[in-house]
Amino acid sequence: MILSPNLKGALLMMGSMAAFTFNDACVKLVAGDLPLFQIVFLRGVLTTLAISALAYTMGLRSLRIPAADRWKVVGRTVAEIASMVAFLVALVNMPLANVTSILAALPLTVTLAGALVLREPVGWRRLAAILVGFAGVLLIVKPGTEGFNAYSLVAVLAVCLVTARDLFTRQFSSEVPSMAVAVITAATVGAFGGLLMLWQGWEPVTPRAAGLVAGAALFIIGGYLFSIMVMRVGEIGFVAPFRYTALIWALLLGWFVFGDWPLPSTLAGSAIVVATGVFTLIRERQVARRKARNPASPTATAVAAAPTIGAREK
Fold first, then answer.
1. pLDDT tens digits, residue range 107-127?
2. Is the dihedral of CA 156, 311, 230, 25 positive or negative?
3. How far is Cα 217 from Cα 211, in angstroms, rounded to an integer?
4. Residues near 140 by Cβ (< 8 Å), separated by ≥ 6?
5. What's this model's pTM, rounded to 2 decimal places?
6. Most buried of 16, 197, 287, 308 (most Cβ within 10 A)?
7. What CA–CA distance (Å, rounded) separates 91 from 37?
8. Contact (Cβ atoms closer than 8 angstroms) between residue 32 and residue 38
């Protein structure tokens, strides 16, 4: 059977989202056996080695970053570390599906931040979708109600920090090697985990814990690999909405592995976030295509260049 480029892209995107979600499940499972930053350190070592080898096979021979982009890379790395801490704290204290549902708001927050900070053009339809999507997030978080979990706010903070990370990324010049940034990020995150591990302490690594950490590293590497491959096939406008299959995996893993099933309000909020996110992604590509037909438009380049697919890097 010969697969079309779009179908290949969709399968790779679903594989990427499955890998990242299984990584989350492994971290959540091992969090009862090992301190959080020991997990970050051990996973970081394995991930850095694997990504470095992958980058080398892809032809990367230097981690040199152009001088004009170095502070942007530093800002991105700091935002990545902060978002990683917030995300993992929320992950170990909340149902997997709830955290994943809140994280699904990323396309909305990135689009809004791009409009506010980078002055990227955003029409009223996408702005309306963003507002509706944020209403869906409120249904998931449930502020002021009996079902409110304070760690939901930590998950929202993680979304804000990942948005900041993506804003730094959008400002990179074309001379910045993506794999170099991936290696630098993985190494820095692992080193940060090792530093805080000295304060948090070290626990003996049981065979079960070692297997889960190795599994987390394997899945996150798979997520990186698939997310790189998906950028090379298919149309982004067709492929990007398949990122929301992460929520399906989170629901299944949460139910079968952790015995969690979201409340109806959480499911309703998740459906709203996914629907508005898909609309935003599709609308961005429609606008980009229309602008591409009119190269004289001053906004054509900005819209067409706006990325809609990215590795979660958690």
1. 999 889 988 888 888 888 889
2. negative
3. 10
4. 98, 101, 102, 152, 265, 266, 269, 270, 273
5. 0.87
6. 16
7. 14
8. no
